[in-house]
Write a structure and sequence with these properties.
alpha/beta; Rossmann fold; seven-stranded mixed sheet; six-stranded mixed sheet; 13 helices; 44% helix; 16% strand; globular; binds nicotinamide-adenine-dinucleotide
Length: 425
């Protein structure tokens, strides 16, 4: 490769660029494609004057980056956080390009956000900020150009305000301009469980490939939130034995199996949706981080990034890890796990049920016709299964780890699209 490699002081962007250049080198990607795909197609910075509740005006800064639209409209969330900046959006937007490509859906990648502390904002201020942001980035947003979604500190209310603002500005309903809307406002049945169901599908297919029976396989689910609960429910319905679960209140270990339905019922009746106070016969309460280390066959980290790190990686007993969360294994821990022959199914394959679910919402919005939850799941599971085998087969044929295989498969699909479409003029 003879291109001059870009670097960045932003750690996230520098890592994303390094990973891309490393993979591009390994797959022998042509220099012009390396140059094209190492840069975003479009980045904009907008200023957002917002009338605060006390009558004063504060000007926030917002960002939207479209990394690639080679495979389809840019797709990716927008977040509200004090640390958001254009480089972070560029890094996260490129990861969305690879994730959508790997997922086999007709989307490119993008990301956005507003630099703010959402805890300091009232609901009315958040609404005005969201509507101003939508109006300012409206020229580059649309169901066939760029489709935002929820991300850190944004959710269904922000998506509704966003859709409503764009619809009123354009004088027509624009439901497909964002995903992550509530079911009553053009959202989709099935979306809540989609990511967890996708994680569980990867676990089941992985067990088939290594000739283990899912019945009785011992699984740990770290993080019992949206992803973890639905992954645990689906795996236990298949006969897996969930031997440990955890959340911010600690670890809950039951070598003979957690009663997942009961634990799910418990969090749903807890005012903060926590496991605090959960009990069943044979259950032992342990420190939260220790759940990662209990004896099991499969570990699914479904909480936050960096859970498996250089301090605890060597003590993990599970032979297989399926990453439900984004980035739950640090790069140095990845090397330790590799030296212990622990097989890792990477996050952007395992948790892609979320973005595939967003695609389903958009498809239903374009058609104005809604699916049942059964229809939704009957489409999600075959896509997740195909994607799992695409990466598994590549990793077996080329003798590379699944994480690297996923990246190479994803880059190739985007590069092929850029080549076929050609450069303009
Ligand atoms: P969530 O907030 O619903 O759940 C997170 C869970 O982790 C909670 O139960 C919380 O108590 C627990 N937790 C936090 N810190 C912990 C700790 N130190 N030890 C044990 N448990 C801890 O979030 P979520 O939507 O389930 O997302 C989880 C991860 O999955 C994140 O990395 C997110 O980016 C990723 N992800 C989510 C989706 C989705 O559709 N929700 C899609 C793709 C990726």
């Amino acid at each position: 490769m003879s291109v001059k490699k870009r670097t960045s002081k932003n750690v996230l962007l520098d890592t994303a660029l390094n990973n891309f250049y490393g993979a591009a080198d390994e797959m022998g990607l042509e220099d012009d494609l390396v140059e094209i795909l190492s840069r975003p197609e479009r980045s904009i910075i907008v200023s957002l004057p917002v009338v605060m509740d006390d009558g004063s005006v504060r000007v926030f800064e917002g960002y939207r980056v479209q990394h690639s639209t080679a495979l389809g409209p840019a797709k990716g969330g927008f977040r509200y956080h004090p640390d958001v900046d254009i480089e972070e959006c560029e890094a996260l937007g490129s990861l969305m390009t690879w994730k959508c490509s790997l997922a086999g859906i007709p989307y490119g990648g993008g990301k956005g956000g507003v630099s703010c502390d959402p805890l300091e904002l009232s609901t009315a201020e958040r609404e005005r900020l969201t509507r101003t942001f939508a109006a300012r980035i409206s020229p580059i947003i649309g169901e066939w150009t760029d489709i935002p979604a929820p991300d850190v500190n944004t959710g269904a209310p922000e998506m509704v305000w966003f859709m409503d603002t764009i619809s009123k500005m354009r004088g027509r309903l624009e439901p497909g301009v964002v995903t992550g809307k509530p079911i009553s406002i053009w959202g989709s049945r099935g979306r809540t469980a989609a990511t967890g169901l996708g994680v569980a599908t990867c676990v089941r297919e992985l067990l088939k490939t290594v000739k283990m029976d899912v019945k009785g396989t011992r699984v740990i689910v770290q993080g019992f939130g949206n992803v973890g609960t639905y992954a645990a429910l689906s795996m236990s319905q298949s006969g897996a034995k969930i031997v440990g679960i955890s959340d911010v209140t600690g670890g809950y270990h039951a070598p003979d199996g957690i009663d997942v339905q009961k634990a799910f019922g418990h969090i749903n009746s807890h005012p903060k949706k926590l496991l605090e106070g959960y009990s069943q016969p044979g259950l032992q309460k342990i420190p939260g981080d220790d759940i990662l280390l209990v004896d099991a066959d499969v570990l699914t980290p479904c909480a936050l990034e960096g859970a498996v790190n250089a301090r605890n990686a060597a003590s993990i007993k599970a032979k297989y890890i399926v990453e439900g969360a984004n980035g739950p294994i640090t790069p140095d821990a990845d090397e330790i796990l590799s030296s212990k022959n622990i097989l890792v199914v990477p996050d952007f394959l395992a948790n892609s049920g979320g973005v595939i679910g967003s695609y389903f919402e958009w498809v239903q919005n374009l058609n104005g016709f809604f699916w049942t939850e059964e229809e939704y799941n009957s489409r999600l599971i075959p896509i997740m299964t195909d994607n799992f085998y695409r990466v598994w087969n590549y990793s077996q044929t080329h003798e590379v780890k699944m994480r690297r295989a996923a990246f190479l498969v994803a880059i190739k699909r985007v590069a092929d699209a850029v080549k076929m479409r050609g450069t303009f003029l």
